[in-house]
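In this supplementary section we document a worked example of the pipeline. Step one takes a protein sequence of length 136 as its only input; no multiple sequence alignment statistics are reported here. Step two produces a three-dimensional model, which step three serialises into structure tokens for compact storage. The input and output of this example are shown verbatim.
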Amino acid sequence: MEKRNKKKGFTLIEMIVVVAIIAILAGIAVPQVTKQINNSKKSADIANAKTIANLIQQQIAEGNTIAESKTNYSEVTSTVLNNNTVPQVKYKQGYVFVYKLDIDNNTLIVGVSDKDTNGIKQEDVITLYPNVGSGY
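The serialised model returned by step three reads:
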């Protein structure tokens, strides 16, 4: 009796087909994962803006002095938040949380803006509280 040598394994064509299928699946999945990551960063920034607004309102209710900024936005600092840590903006790299406070009219706006050596770029502010502005 003669034994036949059977070759075991996959052919080159089978391997190419498998790699092509994996590439197609990755091409579909990666943009969706990236979109979800960006959405979660946006949601985190909006939640942080609400928390900052609540902390500022608490400071005012307790009678602490908060610097008013009726016309221009000011950067949120740990001093404004009663020595609480200011969170970093997650979605827009290089941006900082800013606020505009008018106690007389009882208005508080919290947003994010780009900051350079000259300070806050007032024209780049995107509001996150009380309403989320366009571009976010």
